[in-house]
Amino acid sequence: MIGKLNHVAIVVPDLDAAAAIYRDTLGADVSAPEDLPDHGVTTVFVNLPNTKIELLRPYGENSPIAKFLEKNPAGGMHHLCYEVQDILAARDQLQAAGARVLGDGKPKTGAHGKPVLFLHPKDFCGTLLELEQV
Ligand code: CO
Predict the structure, then answer these.
(1) How many structural domains does the chain have?
(2) Is-contact 65 78, C-beta < 8 A?
(3) Are the C-beta atoms of residues 54 and 111 closer than 8 Å to each other?
(4) Range of the domain at 39
(5) Which residues contact 85 (CB under 8 A, 6 or more apart)?
(6) Is 130 one of the annotated active-site residues of the chain?
(7) What is the pLDDT of residues 9-37, one digit of tens each?
(8) Does the N-terminal or the C-terminal CB of the chain have fewer CB atoms within 10 Å?
């Protein structure tokens, strides 16, 4: 069902500092920051030859990652995103297997304008998973 690893997301307290580490210290191709008010995050994408790293910081009130940063003030890995061909078929198959889909179970438009869903970390080895239809 799952295909390529689309990205690894890391929540950081200082997005500019994190972008500088990836751009200047690690020598990676780093995007400009983008505010996503609907998602409550600001993102920077690090484009690697085989995948992406998504650097995230909270945006606005009630950001879904604010609590994560409270618990992990230095930042840390937040989720993995796997590509799927058909997100509704993937959701139905996973729910039939007993996996929990977060929120109302309906795909939302993600950071790349594609449908995404999040899966409960307790069902997936302690890791929050994002599925993105490609
Ligand atoms: Co993501």
Answers:
(1) 1
(2) yes
(3) yes
(4) 5-133
(5) 3, 133, 134
(6) yes
(7) 999 999 999 999 999 999 999 999 999 99
(8) N
